[in-house]
Amino acid sequence: HSTIMHILSGCHFSLNEGRWNFRHDSILLVFLTNIEFLINEAKTKKPTSKRIAFVKSGFTPQKRSLKPATGLLHKATDWILLADIGDIKLMFPIHIACTEERPDIVIFSNSIKTVILIENSSGCEENATDNHNIKLGRYTLLCEEIRNNGWVVHLFPVEVNARGYCSKSVPFCLKALGFSSTSVRKIVRSLSETAMKNFICHLDS
Question: Nearest-CA neighbor of 189 among 204, 174, 178, 200?
Answer without folding.
Answer: 174
